[in-house]
Amino acid sequence: MRLLSLALVIPLIGGCMLARSPGSVSIIAPQLETVVEADWPEVDWAVLVQRPVADQMRNSDRVLVRVSRSRLQPWPEAAWLDSMPDMVHGLLIQSLEDSGRFSGVGRAGGMRSRFGLASEIRSFEAVDDGSGRLTVELGMRINLVHQPTGRVMATRSFQESRSVEGRSLDALVIAFEEAMAGLFADINGWVLSAGNEATAELDGWRDRFSVPRGRQPRGN
Question: I need a labelling partner for 188 at 20 to 30 A (CA). Which of 48, 146, 204, 217 fits?
Answer without folding.
Answer: 204
